[in-house]
Amino acid sequence: MFKKKQKIKYKMPLKRKIIRIICLVYIFCFSSFLMLFYGPFDSFKEFWITSAMTTMSHKYLATSIYSEKYIQKVLENNSIIEVDEITNPDEIQFRKYTTTIYRNQYEKAILQKDEGNDLYKVINVSGKGYQGFLVAIYDPSRIHIATTQYLGVTGESILTVSERENAIIAMNAGGFYDPDWNGNGALPHGVVFSNGEIVSEYVEANVGGGFIGFTKEDKFVLGSMSKYEAQEMGMRDAVQFGPFLIINGKRSFVRGNGGWGIAPRTAIGQRKDGIVLFLVINGRLANSIGADMIDLCDIMENYGAYNAANLDGGSSSELVIEGKIINTPVAGGSNGLRNMSTFWVVK
Asked: DSSP of 278-312, one letter per residue?
């Protein structure tokens, strides 16, 4: 009688198991990379390219993967066509309300003030993929531009500026340019007005963008104009940036995602009744990827903005109220903050 041969079970060494798992993970990740960045998912590629190309120092995230020709094609298909007008200040008529009847939920959120607070109200806003804060400011005469006290040398933290200015509210304003690209917020883009005076003028960077600011009559004005035209218009506090979202009640045309990708965002606007809107959207977070230009237009339009503009976003999006950081900044500095050159402050 023959005995049955016992099957010998082969036990794979632990080291080989680990190597196999690592190889499988690598193959999966590499395949996923190829599928996302070179596959049929145009929306992802557009998101990636437009988000990278509008950053100050992370363009390589797109240029290292795609050709210059392909990047240009994507940017052309994702752009914003601004309304070719300058704000008509006569359309802004300051108004005080006594009504308790509201046209919609957005008007109610703006006009129904918090008890004991006639200066501002914070409204939580959210949508597909984003979460943020809209601040209604009821007295535009208290809104000004503050700058780093070391213009041309280095920027400052929004907390530092807020404390020095005794600001109740502070929000980032225009972009900045640094010749050595160290991101220290030394030089604001373009011309900066503060309290009716030009306090900075750096146009060599050629970054584009029109004036975004308030006149001496506390009316929010947008327009592509010279500094002399801005002075004639009575500009008191302003920066140069963009794009413009709404001018004279007319919304900009956004093709694709607007060419600015999805990221943390900052915007500013004014309703016809004079109420000013500060908007900061969180981004690059698990619960809030960020917003695009369509989202900004939608939010500003919903809350009644008659004129509205995009401001510097990404790592610059910051909102401080009564000395506390309200949003979730994503810069690499302390508390996620970065040094910047210009700020909107409410005093």
From this structure: EEEE--SBTTB--B-HHHHHHHHHHTTEEEEEE--
- pLDDT at residue 27 is higher than 70: no
Closest CA to 179 of 96, 56, 299: 56
SS (H, E, C) 94-160: CCCCCCCCCCCHHHHHHHCCCCCCCCEEEEEEEECCEEEEEEEECCHHHEEEEECCCCCCCCECHHH
Does residue 33 lie within any of the structural domains?
yes
How far is Cα 139 from Cα 276, in angstroms, rounded to an integer?
Answer: 8
Does a structural domain hold residue 234?
yes
**Model pTM score:** 0.85
> What is the total count of domains within the chain?
2
Q: Could you write out the DSSP letters of every residue in 155-211?
A: -B-HHHHHHHTT-SEEEE-S-EE-TT------EESEEEEETTEEEEEE-TT----EE
pLDDT digits (tens, 9 = 90+) for 123-139: 999 999 999 999 999 99
Co-location of 137 and 262 in the same domain? yes
Contacts of 231 (CB under 8 A, 6+ apart): none
Which structural domain, as residue segments, surrounds residue 73?
15-77
